[in-house]
Structures are given as C-alpha cells and as structure tokens.
Amino acid sequence: MEDGSVRDLFRRAADHAARFRETISDRRQGPEVSYHGSLDAFREAVPEEGTAGADVIDTLAAKAEPGLHVMTGPRFFGWVIGGSHPVGVAADWLTSAWGQNAANHYASPAAAAAETVAAGWLLELLELPRTCSVGFVTGATVANFVCLAAARGEVLRRVGWDAEARGLFGAPPPTVLIGDDAHATVFSALQFLGLGNDRVIRLKTDALGRIGVSEFEEQTAKISGPSIVILQAGQINTGAFDDFAALIPVARRIGAWVHVDGAFGLWARACPPKRVLAAAADEADSWATDGHKWLQTPYDCGYAIIRDEEAHRRAMTIAASYLPPSHEGERDPSHFVPELSRRARGFATWAMIRHLGRKGIAAMVERHCRVAGRMAARLSLEDGIAVLNEIVLNQFMVRFGAGRPDEEADRLTQKTVERLQADGVCFAGGASWRGRKVMRVSVISWLTDDSAADTAADAIIAAWRAVSEPAGS
Ligand SMILES: *Cc1c(COP(=O)(O)O)cnc(C)c1O
C-alpha cells in the first residue's frame, strides 16, 4: 500500500461506522431488505482483478447496510443481544489492527496480560472464587462446551477413566441432569461432547422455567456413578434462576459436577440489588457467561469459568513442540479454550470493564430490570395484552388476545409481532412457551432507557390495536 493509505482506509471505515451508529436511533428498527435482497446485492462472479481498498470498504458498506439489523439500537428487544458498546468496538478495532495471535503469552505478552487481568476482574465482578480459571471464547455456546468438557473429563477421571486420552468408548457412562427449560445451546454442547443431547434426565420445571427441588431430590436419589448437573441463571424467556442454594447441596451429595449456564443472568451477581437471585451460584463447579450480552462487548465474546483449573486445562490441552511451555506465573490464553489461533478478546473485555466500572455495570443491570418492569406495567394496562411472567430480571413474555380461545390468541400474537416488526419502531420477536405463541422482550442494550421503553411500549400497543381493531370494523 502507498504511504498514508492505511490511515485513509481506516478513517474511511471509521466514518462509515460512525455514520451508522449516529443514525441508529432514528432508523427503522429492522433490516430494510431480506436475506435474498442482501444476496442480490453481494452476489457477483469471483473478481479476476483486485480493487482499491477504499473502494472495497465503500462498496461493502453500501451493500451491507440495507441488510443490517439495528441490533445496537435503543429499541431492540429481540433475542438477548447486547448493544456492542462503542468503547468495546473501538478496542476491538485496535485488536484487529494489532493483528495479534492471542494463543500464548510469548507470542503476544499484551494480549495474554489483558486477558489475565480481565479474567481477575470478571471473577470479582461476578463474585466467583478468585482462583477459578477463565477461557475467553466466542460466546456462551462454546463456554458451555468448554465447561462441560472439563466436567466430563473430571467426573470420569474420578472413577479412573481418562476421557481426554481414551474418549468415551468403554467409559462408565456419566448421568446428565438438566432442566426442561435449559437453553438449546447446552444440549448442543452435550451433543458435541459425545454425551448426547437426548441421553439426559430432563427435570420438570415450574411456570418460570425453574427446576423443581423435590423432583431433583427424587431423581438424584436414584443415581450412582459419575454425574453432571446443569443449572441455569437467567432463563431465556422468563429470566428466572434455578434455586442454587437448595439444588447444589443435593447435587454435592451424589458427587456431581455442577455447571451453571448464566449467559446473561450471571450478571445479576454484579448488581447488588439483584444478587440475591443468583445467591449460592458460586457454589457450582463451572459457569458459562457472555461478554456480548450484558457486558456490551462487541461480538464475539464469552467466558468459560471453571473452579478446577487442572480439569479445565486437561480438557483443552494443545501440546506441540513448537509451542512454548508456560511457566509458573504465566498464563496462555489457549490453555482454556478449544482454539489455538484466535483474536485477543481480552482487550475489548478489559476496555468495557474499565469504561463502565463496577458501579456502571451494576447501575446498567438494575436499570434494565427496572425498565423491563416499566414496559410490562404499561402493556398490562391495555385490554387484551397479558404479560405472562413475573418479572424477576430483564426478560418478559407477552400474549395478545388474552382471554380469547388459545388458537385465536396464538394467531393474534403472531399477527401483532408481524405488525410490530413491519412498523419498525422497535423490534421484538416471537417464541413458543408451554405450547403457545408469545412475544419475547429482552431489555439488555446499554442505550435502552425509560424513554426508549415508553416509545416501544406505545408501538407495541399500537400494533396490537391495529391487529385487534382492523380499520373499518
Ligand atoms: C444466549 C444464551 C446462550 C448462548 O450464548 P451465545 O452467546 O449465543 O453463544 C446460552 N444460554 C443462555 C441462557 C443464553 O441466553
């Protein structure tokens, strides 16, 4: 590249990015074109000749933007999606520009050091044992995988089986207990690990999706041999928490490894008024959580946190003669994750914690929970709208046509969600809960405040009215 062109190129990308972010609140809260529209924009033959970098970046922005979902906007309530905070994004740009392979401390001292420090901060903020090891992964899906890999190895090691070396062929079969309303990705992790996504004991859950304590006691009484218990902090639809204080001691009686999927809910522990929800979660053996949800880091970022560092390392070992050994006091990022080469995720995590601080994180979590309650209260005042769950955290479900026959309410709920998405003032998606259609609302963007929530609630009510009282009727 010619002199100066790197700076021009980076400035250009920064200008596109800033323009996108600056207009985010005023944009339609949804993509302007569908997947097929985007495909038409991108599809062309393999270019024979190269193109100047600046043109490539301008063209990329022009082609991509109509097909982008405004996930970073203040009125985005779909799935459970953090706001990709500008400070995290800027740190992530530097991460890319520095081009560090973060595998080990020798290759990139700064990448390894930022992870070490950020890992310590995470343990403090989440109030987990300070001696836990932390793997910086792509998200809670892989964090669940890493934690359950360590669980699998350790429960089998205790009965004399080396799963890392011998695999599962001929191994004593571990029993896996999991709540009926666990997240789909936990079942995927079990599938990747050869434990089977269906070869589990599924425990019945209550109206909020929490494992029933007495059923858990009954089930565990029947178990002998290696076992893994999977609990949840923050159910994807209700935000509810399993009763860790009651369940973990029962799991301990049978010597089970206890894993907690806390993709977003574990952050209740970083917020003093909400901490009680996840009380005793620190008694578990491993925890999966996300950076790209409540901590607002850009994608992708999650953390696999494990009490037993040796079990963590054994499960993720990569040994090769050309890789430097690590010594006492040095930490290699790759010892705690499945990948060898990967981006230096510690920088964005470090930047977000530094930016928000302990108080900022606590205040944000508290605000989101309060805003969720405010939105739900406003919606509940409207005839025909029902909020289905007690709001313990930041998640709630809404049903439209409440009081009408189930099938009709299903249809009205679906239609209202479609109408809301077409209106584009805010975004929320549909789901099924207990066999019935619902709309899910997740309040988790750093930009969402009372006023954004009020605008969104009004838009939801307007969509419902348009569906329930069609013009002319
Ligand atoms: C989001 C989520 C996951 C999956 O996390 P990813 O970051 O999408 O990989 C797992 N469990 C729960 C409870 C979640 O909310």
Outline the low-pLDDT stretches: none
Placed side by side, the strands forming the largest sheet appear as: 1-7-6-5-4-2-3
User: Termini distance?
Assistant: 66 Å
The number of helices is 14
β content, as a range?
5-15%
In the CATH hierarchy, the architecture of the largest domain is 3-Layer(aba) Sandwich
Indicate the topology.
Layout: H1 5-22, H2 35-42, H3 53-64, H4 86-98, H5 109-125, E1 133-137, H6 140-157, H7 163-166, E2 175-179, H8 184-192, E3 201-203, H9 213-221, E4 227-232, H10 244-253, E5 257-261, E6 286-290, E7 302-306, H11 309-316, H12 346-380, E8 385-387, E9 395-400, H13 406-423, E10 429-433, E11 436-442, H14 450-468
Parallel strand pairs: 2-3, 2-4, 4-5, 5-6
Antiparallel strand pairs: 1-7, 6-7, 8-9, 9-11, 10-11
This protein binds pyridoxal-5'-phosphate.
Quick structural overview:
With 473 residues, the chain is α/β, with parallel strands linked by helices. The chain has helices at 5-22, 35-42, 53-64, 86-98, 109-125, 140-157, 163-166, 184-192, 213-221, 244-253, 309-316, 346-380, 406-423, 450-468; strands at 133-137, 175-179, 201-203, 227-232, 257-261, 286-290, 302-306, 385-387, 395-400, 429-433, 436-442.
Write a structural description.
With 473 residues, the chain is an alpha/beta fold. It has three domains: 3-68, dopa decarboxylase, N-terminal domain (Up-down Bundle), CATH 1.20.1340; 92-352, Type I PLP-dependent aspartate aminotransferase-like (Major domain) (Aspartate Aminotransferase, domain 2, 3-Layer(aba) Sandwich), CATH 3.40.640.10; 366-468, Aspartate Aminotransferase, domain 1 (Alpha-Beta Complex), CATH 3.90.1150.10. The protein has helices spanning 5-22, 35-42, 53-64, 86-98, 109-125, 140-157, 163-166, 184-192, 213-221, 244-253, 309-316, 346-380, 406-423, 450-468; strands at 133-137, 175-179, 201-203, 227-232, 257-261, 286-290, 302-306, 385-387, 395-400, 429-433, 436-442. The longest helix is centred in the C-terminal third of the chain and has 35 residues, at 346-380. The mean pLDDT is 95. Pyridoxal-5'-phosphate is lined by residues 80, 139-141, 183, 185, 234, 236, 261, 263-264, 290, 302.
